[in-house]
Amino acid sequence: MSGISDTMSGMLAAEAVTRTYTTPAGDVHALRGVSHAFMPGRVTAVMGPSGSGKSTLLNLLAGFDRPSSGRVVFDGVSLGDLPERELAGLRLRRFGFVFQSSNLISVLPARKNVAFPMGLAGLSLRERTDRAQALLERFGVDHRADAVPNRLSGGERQRVALARALANDPDVVFADEPTGNLDRSSGREVVNALREVAADGRTVIVVTHDGAVADAADVTLRIVDGEIDDAADASETALHEPVAST
Amino acid sequence: MIWSLALHSLRHRPLRTTLTAAGIAIAVGSMVVFLSLGEGLRQAFADELSGVGAEIQISSGPFEASGFGSVPELPLSTIDDIKRVGEPLGVIDVIPLVLYLRGGFTPDSSFAFQGLPADIDIAGVYPGYEIVAGRGITPEDANRNVAVVGVQAAERSNLEIGDPLRLSPDATFEIIGLADATGGLLSNGILVPLESLQVAIDSPDRVSFLVVDIDDPSRADEVADALGEAFPELGVQTAGDVLAVIERGIRITDVVRLGISAIALIVGAIAVANTVLMSVFERTREFGVVRAVGARPRFLFGVVLAESVLLSIVGGLVGVLLGFAGAWIVNIVSADLIGLDVAAITMRLILFSLAVALAMGLLSGLAPSARAARIQIAHAVSQGN
After folding, report:
1. How many domains does chain A have?
2. Which residues 6+ apart lie within 8 Å of B363 measured at CB?
3. Of the four, B175, B223, B229, B365, which is 20 to 30 A from B212 by CA?
4. Between residues 152 and 181 of chain A, which touch chain B (CB distance below 8 Å)?
5. Domain-located, residue A6
């Protein structure tokens, strides 16, 4: 099947994706035929009111869930066709994740949190320690490398999470409300960091309520009642030129 | 990775980890103490019987039914019959023995009287027999109410030479000496002339056992079989047979004690399962994140199972140490009361206890591990938002 996803390497696309939940009260249509291609080198903000379906879209794009119909395609492969083992491998090596606060492993210090996905990927202790340290330095939290998450500020936690998201050098970084619990200054730092990540040529998809994040994004996708709001469909933010894929 | 994360998780919650491990330690410790009693009894009986010189014992019926302290039932005339049949088989001597237990409310007022002929060499029956104070029984004492008391019995009941020992309202024995021997059977008992004891318990011409001495101890089984065939109405046992009967009895008590221990172990296992399951519930979001960043379900299964196993191993090791302490206390008490160490911790008991602890960890960790492995990422990471 030829679709919007076939054009670019490392590109993630939703093709006529629907997701329906069956509940005792009847079927709930969380997504109704969403199609969109998420480009490398760009930050795409997915916005919409609570319950509009934006988190559902992220779950489907990240392979946490499978669509009721339609498909999510990454590098020409439909995620729905992959067994759980291969999906886990994809999330480990090609995708990175930043969630709202408390998304670090609470019992591990920052450095070990960042090194964790590298360990799963089979890197040696030396490699993962060096690389984790470099990533913490990149996001300005290397001085907090030995602190466990509950000793970090909200902004520091999100920057450690960003470092962890890049642990295995992924093509796509997902961020779910990354500035949700942060003050304005910390939020701005995280947004800037996400833009830097996109500047590396990665696809960055941010689900957010935060207008400041949308303002900083290259593309804004507005979801309303499970559908892309045509009036604001994939508007390219004029203030930010897309960063070319490297 | 799995063991490291499990270890970090346990160390991150020290109070909960300590309390859960303490629960396991107490369960395993109580099991070790219970089972150490069986090990101790085995060792004690082996020691006691090694201190009996005779290779073959004969009772009026099966050994299990002969019972210490019951009325002697074996006619003295049996001695001549045994000698007659046994001589060609290598029987050197047949010694009659009357055992009589005078019960009391406490161990120090209970006495095991052993009546042996006054004219025999006691060392032939109890190797290592020696008088440590006073004098021993001589042929002249044959019909006198005199007694030689084992050192442990004397110490336990605070008896001295010259003290009277009341066996019944009509029979009192005077202590003339204190004796010791290899094993504890004699040193915990009271030796009196056979005839005096028979009169005192109103059982003349009857004995409890016949102790058969043979020229070649390696042929004990063969001689016992031949005597058993010749006297089917009697119980003929070698020392090995006696040990086997005792072993059977101890095994029965092992099962009972293991059953009692199982209650503590089950409670401990439920506590581990509950703690680990609660910890899985609390970490649903965190486990969702771990899955999101690429861990497969079996990784989380392994982490949770490893936590459970680590808790159980630590609890098991501490439990074995508690068991040592418990057995030590039991032995202090039992040595004081009956002059025997009834608890013993053997290597096989230690290994068995650690294996039980490990099995407990594996079993109690299965359900929480399966729960962790089934966590749905989308549902888990949305928790707390």
Report:
1. 1
2. B269
3. B175
4. 164, 167-168, 176-177, 180
5. no
